[in-house]
Amino acid sequence: MQSASVLSDFLLKNPVFTLFIAIGCGYLLGRVRIASISLGPVAGALVVSLLLGQFGFKISEGAQSVGFALFIFAVGYQAGPRFFEVIRTQGVQYLLLALFVAGVGAVIAIVAGTLLDLPFGGMAGLLAGALTTTPTLAAAQEAVRSGLVALPEGATADTVLATIASSYAITYIVGLLGIIATVRLLPRVVGVDLAAEAAMMEESQKQPAGGQLQARAYRVSRPEACVPTIREMRARLWDSLSVARLLRNGEWVVPADDDRLRIGDEIHVYGDSNVFRSGIDAFGEEIAVSPEIDLTASYAHVVVARRGAVGKTLLDLGLARSCGLVVTEVQREGVSLPLSGHLRLQRSDVLSVVGPKSGLKAMEEILGPVEAGVAETDMTTFSFGIALGALVGLFAVKVGGIPIGLGMAGGLLGSGIFVGWLNATRPTLGRFPEAARWILMEFGLMVFIVGVGLQAGGQIVETFVDAGATLILAAVLVVSLPMLLGYAFGRKVLHLHPVLLLGALTGAMTSAAAMSLVNQEAKSTIPALGYTGTYAFANVILTVAGTLIMFV
Questions:
Q1: How far is 347 from 52, CA to CA, in rounded Å?
Q2: Where a domain ends, among 308, 341, 373?
Q3: I need a labelling partner for 71 at 20 to 30 A (CA). Which of 19, 91, 268, 334 fits?
Q4: Are 118 and 467 in contact, with CB atoms under 8 Å apart?
Q5: What's the angle, vertex CA 274, arms to CA 272 and CA 280, rounded to 5?
Q6: Interacting residues of 484 by C-beta distance below 8 A, sequence separation 6+
């Protein structure tokens, strides 16, 4: 007993130690898998901090506010490059789907909160937890902290914040399991074979299977190899994303599509090992790959920022032929997309490329900056961006005695979107490398979540006793109905392909865990295309929803 008291006193007197212990233990707990399902770091940190909160542990409001600012700004920055671009192109469908899912979820949360007579703030916690969306929670709490929302008579900011936090904590696990269960069951209920549908989409897009980089070299000795053009040989023997180099008369050349091989030529082809077709040895004898063809010479990440590259396919750009670089991966919103020559690039996509360093400069001119060469964050723009968002969030206009404004969450989100868009159009401004963005976004989120858990810990038992069973039932409805109705809306009204639609639904719920599960069920990364379509919109919409629901 005395040792427990000593430990408790130590944790209370050392909040920095307590904070990082909670984050570290949260990550460890989040990695535990039961039947291929894991909680993830957010749920893990929430559970750990809830336990600590039972003993009265707290972190300072200032630390939580800083975490909130970093997280929301980074969310906006991530959405910025594609937010307007996607709206102008194919994004109307995904925007409508994200709006529909958020709207249905909000309506159900409001109706359930009214019927259950939840205390003020309970609706916001229910919506945020059931949809497992932290931006909603952050926006709702900040609306209370900033004074944007008038509190009911007798209520204090602390009690309302605790209500939001405890409702969120109770419904979050339900929401997480509900999304996963719906994703597993929905395809079976509607009679969709995800794996078969995804395979057909991959075949139509000529998607390679995804092997290892490989180089092959042949000396042309057979006359029949000199008949077809390089274009015909590429279609028959290797993938169009692979690089072909030709050694002719002692000089390296990049063969044009209409070129033909000659006896004595040495042709070197490198790319994904799975794209080399049977019969590639029809050139003649296989020889050792020249040391000048060095696949490890350069590995870099190139960010799509040039206007001329946006909306073009990898085939349209002809990067393999013009730059001599192999594209090994395309990421969008941090999600790896199925690699295909027919994949249309969008602003801020990140391409992983490998090949000679000489090709990087040419690729920069076509696509945008090489991220591997950028190590520093533009701290000036970053700092002023957050300051601008905080300032905008302070302004409110009273309409009928009710203050109307963006609030801190809306201000930071809008500022993040602007800076992200600015960087996409002018890469030298607002530079925020992916690794730096991830650590600040993840760390900010963890600090905020630990603060929420510690805040809710002292009240969660009381909340569960008062409304636990009915709150869980409401969470089941809030998480399942938006997905079920969203699927019907996506198929009947928006006419989205079922594979893309299921990915888009997980994006509308901002659930990366559910998206990974859809990919597993589909045995493909095709659903990721739908996920990235709605994810940026959903983060923005659900952040705004967190503020608006506090006025109900």
A1: 43
A2: 373
A3: 91
A4: yes
A5: 95
A6: 182, 186
Q: Which residues of 153-170 are buried (b: 16+ CB within 10 A; e: fewer)?
A: eeeeeebbbbbbbbbbbb
Is 459 inside a domain boundary?
yes
Q: Which residues of the chain have pLDDT under 70?
A: 1-8, 11-12, 35-38, 81-91, 202-214, 235-244, 271-283, 290-298, 333-334, 356, 358, 371-376, 396-407, 425-429, 457-468
Indicate whether 74 and 100 sit together in one domain: yes
Interatomic CA distance for residues 481 and 131, integer angstroms: 11
Residue at which a domain ends, from 324, 353, 373? 373
Q: Same domain, yes or no, for 366 and 509?
A: no
**Is the distance from CB of 301 to CB of 369 less than 8 angstroms?**
no
Residues across the chain: 552
Q: Which domain holds residue 420?
A: 59-146+153-199+380-551
Task: Locate 376 and state its tokens.
Answer: 């520093």
Cα separation, 67 vs 13, in Å, equals 21
What distance in Å separates the CA atoms of residue 481 and residue 242, rounded to the nearest whole number?
45
> The dihedral of CA 399, 133, 538, 414: what is its sign?
positive
Report how many domains make up the chain.
Answer: 3
What CATH number has the domain bearing residue 308? 3.30.70.1450
In a domain, 52, yes or no: no
- At 280-312, the pLDDT tens digits run 666 677 777 766 655 545 677 788 878 788 888
CA torsion 119-125-126-127 (nearest 10°) is 130
Task: Give the residue carrying structure tokens 């749920």.
Answer: 43
Report the side by side order of strands in the sheet with 213-220: 251-253, 243-248, 266-272, 213-220, 284-286
Q: Are residues 275 and 317 in the same domain?
A: no
Query: Do residues 276 and 340 share a domain?
Result: no
- Token readout for 24 is 């570290």
pTM over 0.70: no
Domain co-membership, 275 together with 176: no
> Pairing mode, if any, of strands 326-332 and 266-272?
unpaired
Tokens describing residue 242: 């692979």
Same domain, 129 and 177: yes
What is the tens place of the pLDDT at every residue in 134-151? 888 888 888 888 777 888
Q: Which residue has the tokens 């984050």?
A: 23
Q: Nearest-CA neighbor of 416 among 65, 7, 82, 38?
A: 82
Q: What is the 3-state secondary structure (H, E, C) of 34-84?
A: ECCEECHHHHHHHHHHHHHHCCCCCCCHHHHHHHHHHHHHHHHHHHHHHHH
Same domain, residue pair 310 and 432: no
Name the E strands within 199-339: 213-220, 243-248, 251-253, 266-272, 284-286, 299-303, 326-332, 335-337
User: 96 with 494: CB under 8 angstroms?
Assistant: yes
Same domain, 191 and 240: no
Tokens found for residue 228? 């077809």
Instruction: Please report whether residue 42 resides in a domain.
Output: no
